[in-house]
Amino acid sequence: MYNKSTMSNLIYRNLKSGTDVRGYAVASREHEVTLTSAAVYDITGAFLKWLSAKTGKTKLKIAVGHDVRISCADILFSLRHSALDSGAELLGCGLCSTPSMFMLLKNGGYGLDATIMITASHLPYDRNGLKFFTPEGGLEGDAVSEILEMAERRERLEGGKGSYRDISYLDEYCDGLVALVRSACNSDAPLKGKRIIVDAGNGAGGFFTEKVLKPLGADTAGSQFLEPDGYFPNHIPNPEDRDAMASLKKAVLATGANLGIIFDTDVDRAGLVDSEGNELNRNRLIALTAATLDDEKASIVTDSVTSDGLKKFLDERGYTHIRFKRGYKNVIGEAVRRNKLGENCPLAMETSGHAAFRDNYFLDDGAYLVCRLLIALAKQAKKGERLVSLISSLETPKEENEIRIKFSPKSINFRAEGQRVIDEITHFARGDGHIAIAPDNYEGIRLSFDEEHGDGWMLVRMSVHDPVMPVNFESMQEGGNLKMAKYLMSVLRKYPFLDISPLEKFIG
Question: Are strands 435-437 and 445-449 parallel, antiparallel or unpaired?
């Protein structure tokens, strides 16, 4: 429960996670609560002071929404009191999606200075967090760091008594999605005759069936786990989770659906399953999304772990494929930068399912992504073709693996040590005639191996946040990843500051 007098000794900067604030919001035997009521109160007040300095306003108008997590009510209580103590006018949006909280800023009728979303995305039920938006977009990491440091010093906007009222915006947001599909398809019910089901994983995405699919004429019978439940009793709402995708695949095949849709908890990511139970995520989802674009000779920015098959697919369509640093904000930021320089770059997309379109403010919105693909589905159906025929030429690997190598607790400077390892791998590769170094890689080292030595590629990089060195393998032959892993082992075994046991286990 919120207690204004509670003073926490927590260093708030430890709650920074990329461009979000995240922490433990439910206590357990393993950990204490780190996103405390005092932390939420202080961080909200600091954000409002930061926002006041940015806008030049002392009377601010903001809105707050939340996902399904069991801790949302307590966090909202603390946030609300902090906003009112700062003299802000606060609008409560209730259960909603993260993208809708940004789109609310683009609706001029509300006149908002910022919005806050209470969510921890795909993380387990005991986590929660805060995500901040201004009309320019989500806050960058530097701004979040500044706000957390202000919160540690208990800096806050003191503005007297504010006000609070509830509003309902999700219906308006969904009406916009429905109008988008109807306009593109020139039909009020473009999905009539199609069974399209949703697996929301008990996250916030259950609204998509009633508020988007049904108005477009779709039969949604067989949709599952639509009811919000912050414990996620069936599976984690996450398009990258194997159990989640298996659950959707089972439902699609059992119901004879034309398409299955899965969202993450706060609906900023999505994945699909086709009528035959094939997963449409990662490289396949990027290829499918790119195939729906009307642009010619466009640049498409992805994260660094996309496949050689995807690059070939995009090249054949006249697109320039740019592999950039992992992290959806990195990918989106690079697309924005290139557009500012005059380059035609309409899409930024990460293999995790984050997709951002230029014509939608470069907002990563899972519901918007799905609507773009529903338009393609309807148009393909008119031609008597299936949606997946758009990517029939995409080459898919025989093997895909990721191994995460941790640094020893005795590591002195894991980032410097990691760079040393990457430099040495690069040195070895340059002297090996069977290996080629990718010329277009923006992080770590990406190596291509000839047919005899793996017939695929390997990417070694540093994690964005953690003392971990992820290694991604992809091969066009069975056993190819094992060959590449053995090569990597020959280089890494000499470094005592690395825990190579996951690599040893993979090699067997």
Answer: antiparallel
pTM summary value: 0.92
Cβ atoms within 10 Å, residue 437: 14
483 backbone dihedrals φ, ψ, rounded to 5°: -60, -45
For 283, the token pair is: 């490289």
Regarding beta strands 445-449 and 320-324, do their DSSP bridges make them parallel or antiparallel, or are they unpaired?
Answer: unpaired
For 231, the token pair is 């414990």
Tell me which H or E stretch contains 196. strand 196-199
Asked if residues 273 and 279 have their Cβ atoms less than 8 Å apart, the reply is yes
**Identity of the residue numbered 233:** P
226, 206 Cβ separation under 8 angstroms: yes
| Span 196-247, pLDDT tens digits | 999 999 999 999 999 999 999 999 999 999 999 999 999 999 999 999 999 9
- Measured CA to CA, the distance from residue 249 to residue 247 in angstroms comes to 5
CB–CB of 99/367 below 8 Å? yes
The burial class, CB within 10 Å (0-12 / 13-18 / 19+), for 246 is middle
How many angstroms separate the Cα of 150 from the Cα of each of 128, 139, 145, 262? 21, 15, 9, 38
Lowest-pLDDT range, 80-84, 105-109, 168-172, 323-327? 105-109
Is 411 in contact with 329 (CB distance < 8 Å)?
no
- Give the H/E segment covering residue 300: strand 299-303
Report the alpha-carbon distance of residue 207 to residue 201 in Å, rounded: 12
Helix (H) or strand (E) holding 291: helix 282-291
List the structure tokens of 255.
């119901």
CA–CA distances in Å: residue 173 to residues 78, 157, 218, 369: 27, 31, 19, 14
DSSP 209: I
Helix and strand counts by DSSP (H, E) for the chain: 14, 22
